[in-house]
Each structure stands twice: as C-alpha cells, then as structure tokens.
Design a protein that fits this description.
about 35% strand; 5-stranded mixed sheet
Length: about 80
C-alpha cells in the first residue's frame, strides 16, 4: 500500500489535520497537494517528529522513513 495516515499539527495556524499521504511522494509534494485543498498559508514548513525529537527531511519519499500506521508530526 502506498498510503499512510498522519496527524499534522501546524503550530503557526494552531490547527490539526489528519491526512492520508502518498508514501511515494515527499513531504514537500504531499503538502503542495494538501495546500490545493486547504489554504496552509505557507508551503515550506519544517517537519518535526515529537516522539523521536528530530527534524525530518522534506525532500525524500515518505516510504524511506518507515513510519508506523499512524504518526503525529509538528509543522513549524
């Protein structure tokens, strides 16, 4: 399957979105598609994994991260 469910907490907007992203695409590409549906105000967010306490690269496919089925991420 090429889908993953993510909960994105966009801190600057104080909003939470639960989305299904395509794992073949990068964060940048998935957020660009999401921005067409919902006005995110900014497409160049930094992605932070609060569980592992690390920033994630935005330009590699999501399948390379080996996320579990549901993941919480913060966007700055």
């Amino acid at each position: 399957m090429n889908k993953i469910i993510l909960r994105l907490h966009i801190l600057s907007l104080n909003k939470v979105y639960e989305v299904i992203f395509d794992t073949r695409l990068s964060f940048r590409e998935n957020l660009k598609i999401l921005n067409e549906l919902v006005d995110l105000k900014n497409r160049d967010y930094y992605i932070f994994d609060p569980e592992k306490k690390i920033a994630l690269k935005r330009d590699i496919p999501l399948k390379d991260f080996n996320f579990r089925a549901f993941k919480n991420l913060n966007l700055y």
